[in-house]
């Protein structure tokens, strides 16, 4: 049985200076990021929503250090691993993942 898609949008995964454009999507059980360019090493990510410890606003950074946009979120899992995504309407994503994550 395939899960129903709740929300999906174009997003950019960021890890330090590395960035990858792709598709961020949410189902009832998963948060998934599928990069358009699979060779960059950022994704695909499949995060179990039950393992999300925290979702918070985040500053997307240029060169990995200089804050350039507040249109970003950071998802931290129970094991301490963290994922940053730059995307439109981050407040909608925060509300969706914090309330029902």
Task: Compose a concise summary of this entry.
The protein is mainly beta and 101 residues long. 11% of the residues lie in helices and 59% in strands. A hairpin with a 3-residue loop joins strand 5 and strand 6.
* Fraction of helical residues: 10-25%
* Unreliable spans: none
- Count all strands and give the number: 7
User: What structural category arises from helix and sheet content?
Assistant: mainly beta
What's the helix-strand series? EEEEEEEH
Q: What's the average pLDDT?
A: 88
Instruction: Please tell me what the overall shape is.
Output: globular
Report the span from N to C terminus. 21 Å
Number of helices: 1
Fraction in beta strands: over 45%
Which oligomeric form is depicted?
A: single chain
Q: Which strands sit side by side, in order, in the main sheet?
A: 4-3-2-1-7-6-5
Largest sheet composition = 7 strands, antiparallel
> Gyration radius, to the nearest Å?
13 Å
Question: Would you kindly provide a written description of the structure presented here, covering whatever features stand out?
Answer:
The chain is mostly beta strands and 101 residues long. The protein has 1 helix and 7 strands. The chain has one helix at residues 90-100; strands at residues 5-15, 18-27, 30-35, 45-48, 52-62, 66-77, 82-87. A 7-stranded antiparallel β-sheet has the order 4-3-2-1-7-6-5. Strand 6 and strand 7 (82-87) form a beta hairpin. The model has no long low-confidence stretch (mean pLDDT 88).
